Amino acid sequence: MCDFLFTKGLTMLTIFIMVLSGKATLRFSCMAWILLILYIPTCLAEPGEERYELKGKVVRADDGKPIKGVIPVVFLRGVTSPFTTNTLVGPSGNFGFKKLSPAPYRLIIAVPKWGEMEKSIEIGPSFANNKNQIEMEFSFSPDYQTETTDVVSLKQLTVPGKAKKEYREALKKLEKNEVDKAITLLKKAIKLAPNYSDAWNRLGTIYFVSGEYAEAEHHFRKAMEIDPNAFAPVVNLGAALYALGKIEESLLFNKKAVSMDPRDPLANSQLGLSYLALKMYSKAEDHLLKCKSLDPGHFSHPQVTLAELYRQLKDTQGMIRELKEFIFYHPDDAKVPALRKILAEIESASENQ
Question: Angle CA(100)–CA(140)–CA(53) in degrees, nearest 5?
């Protein structure tokens, strides 16, 4: 498994309503989306903030029973912070995570010999019971296995044990949201093993989430140079380049990421965003719809990007449809109150036309 960014790990979209000539219109300032796929922690709770418990269960897709003969591992990654944690699945298929902040997360289930599946989830009051518990069941099938084949390079096989130890310690710090300490440990790992691609990539994701996009770009390029077959640095670099305004170059790497794994929601979402920035509407729509088909509640929020696409095409009904769908999948998102007002303005303006 590897870390990777996704063009919306942090979908920084500023939404404004402008009333022009008595008609409501939308303007989105799409800043960067960062889809980080592998180890990324969740935000720490603010003082007095509610915490939640995720109670999950993994079952076979064919018969609804727990998976036998192997022990699945569940990874939980924060979308808007470098948080990461993991746990083993019990014999009955159950697993859990406690004291989670309300936020979007990436949940990855890895089953030996079967492959992996990933799903975007939201932790928040709309999904919790009166005990702040959120219960979810995940149906796993070998069909969820990713299409990319991870080829471990000779350079990665020669990473010394001391460097790997520093890397493992860094992940523990990220689980506690001790980001500065994690950065120090990752830098030690790189000093011990300059060709440690995973460490370069992980450090890049931290810089990306912190808004240090130039540093992130440097680290992702280094990781990709060391291990050209790794998917994570490619998709992460596409996100960093987009955040830096290097749209045409971001398009190249996002296209490469999709070619490496056509079924990856993040890669498709980022590619759609790059196409939209270049006003290549048909291609943008194709990849954003593909992202939705793979994961309707994806943390990259493809509905918001599609709403902007339809706004530019003057398709009011398409824009309304996507914004309503976004609210359905992300009711606790901070943007929802503003989006509801936007929808009311648009629908009112449409009725008066």
Answer: 15
